[in-house]
Specification:
6-stranded parallel beta sheet; alpha/beta; Rossmann fold; 16 helices
Length: 426
């Protein structure tokens, strides 16, 4: 199949590379000529395991190419996948301007009966205006479908090649048949639903995962008031098959490019439909308050942050990515600096700087970051950070080790001379 992917951000590049690996002829389209030039050299502006190798293989095989020319990319395409960004506005509502811009640019060049699949996350009801935008610029027949993505940064290539399911939102049997055949090599369940259901499936999946994170954080808060250990609580509840042991992450709340955005958009959507007591609104509020609350809590234990030397370990929002959007560090560092702390930060891949860089330095090793630190804050479960031998750090004064992901062994950290603090661990 001849496929064009509009938008060469995280989702677009991964999708283009994987679809081409299945034997399809794929064109990645973007309006940024510098990005296209870089992708032609198989260089991506973000870290994603396995992606660069796949780009090299598919371009050498002649199945994948990149361009900023809409006519060249669109005119022969049988399937157009729109994967541009849909950021949130200040109100929390989704900003569809990139979707509309892409549709206006591609509409004059489409061939009859082309399938236009929206992989970008958009709320139910969006397709009415999207369809109208295209129809205003072409008389050719086209089929608009919803094809939501479920990628996790750090494992995106594997997630695309081995999905839990493929969701196709369409009411056209022939269109579904074509898209089901395209995804057949994935050997995953293919779910045929209505367009609005497909859009809600994406939002619901992310909102539910965000709910689990928020829920276990609330339970961890209660554990702080007694002798319960949140990890033991998780172990105990996990044997209930309705609950399971998976995806319980007590810590700093959810971050990244999807969960905060999607929960905020669902909250805004709920408010717009007079669902003012909707759970999504409360989730967003609790997550926004999570980090400031913990920093204040820890500040009381460590004797305040003023003039304290703090080591920040982990700047990305999770391991195996250099994405710092809504990362814990991006919220914690400014709060600590405003409280008078001095910070040395380390991350294996991510580079990030606060707006005010006074008393802030990013260094290239854990040892440099932790040297003479009063407090070490472990924010991300990078293997380099979790597996580091902290007993090699000379402890010459009272030093606190704050394990914000509950990934370290408390006894070994204490034996190394640190005062250990975790999340809901007593």
């Amino acid at each position: 199949m001849k496929i064009t992917v509009v938008g060469t951000g995280f989702v677009g590049v991964v999708s283009a590379a994987v679809y081409s690996s299945l034997g399809n002829q794929v064109i990645g389209l973007d309006i940024d000529p510098n990005k296209i030039k870089s992708l032609k050299q198989s260089k991506v502006p973000f870290f994603e395991p396995g992606l660069e190798k796949l780009l090299i293989e598919q371009q050498r095989a002649g199945r994948l190419q990149f361009t900023d020319n809409y006519k060249k990319a669109i005119s022969e395409a049988e399937l157009i996948i729109i994967a541009v960004g849909t950021p949130s506005k200040k109100t929390g509502a989704v900003d569809l301007s990139y979707i509309f811009s892409a549709c206006k640019s591609l509409a004059p060049h489409i061939k009859p009966k082309v399938i236009i699949a929206i992989k970008s996350t958009v709320p139910p009801g969006s397709f009415t205006q999207i369809k109208k935008t295209i129809q205003e610029l072409t008389a050719k027949k086209f089929y608009l479908v919803s094809l939501p993505e479920f990628l996790k940064e750090g494992t995106a290539v594997s997630d695309t090649l081995h999905p839990d399911r493929v969701v196709i939102g369409t009411d056209n049997a022939q269109v579904f048949k074509k898209l089901a055949a395209l995804h057949q090599p994935f050997k995953a369940p293919v779910v045929k639903v209505g367009i609005e259901s497909a859009q809600m499936i994406k939002y619901t999946a992310n909102a539910y995962l965000a709910t689990r994170i928020t829920f276990i954080n609330q339970i961890a808060n209660l554990c702080e008031h007694n002798q319960a250990n949140i990890e033991e609580v998780i172990e105990g509840i996990g044997y209930d098959q309705r609950i399971g042991h998976h995806y319980w992450y007590p810590g700093l709340g959810y971050g990244g490019s999807c969960f905060p955005k999607d929960v905020k958009e669902l909250a805004a959507y709920a408010k717009n439909h007079n669902e003012t007591d909707n759970l999504m609104i409360q989730l967003d509020r609790l997550n926004e308050a999570r980090i400031p609350s913990l920093i204040n809590h820890w500040g009381k234990i460590v004797g305040g942050w003023e003039n304290k030397q703090v080591a920040i370990l982990g700047l990305s929002f999770k391991s195996n990515t250099n994405d710092t959007r809504e990362s814990p560090a991006s919220r914690i560092v400014p709060q600590l600096l405003s409280s008078g702390a001095k910070i040395k930060a380390y991350d294996p891949k991510a580079v990030w700087k606060p707006a005010n860089q006074q008393n802030y330095q990013q260094v290239d090793s854990i040892k440099t970051a932790t040297a003479k630190a009063d407090i070490i804050l472990v924010l991300v479960e990078w293997p380099e950070i979790i597996n580091f031998d902290y007993s090699t750090i000379k402890v010459s004064k009272k030093q606190f080790m704050i394990d914000a992901r509950n990934q370290l062994e408390p006894d070994s950290i204490s034996q190394a001379g640190f005062s250990y603090l975790g999340i809901g661990r007593n």
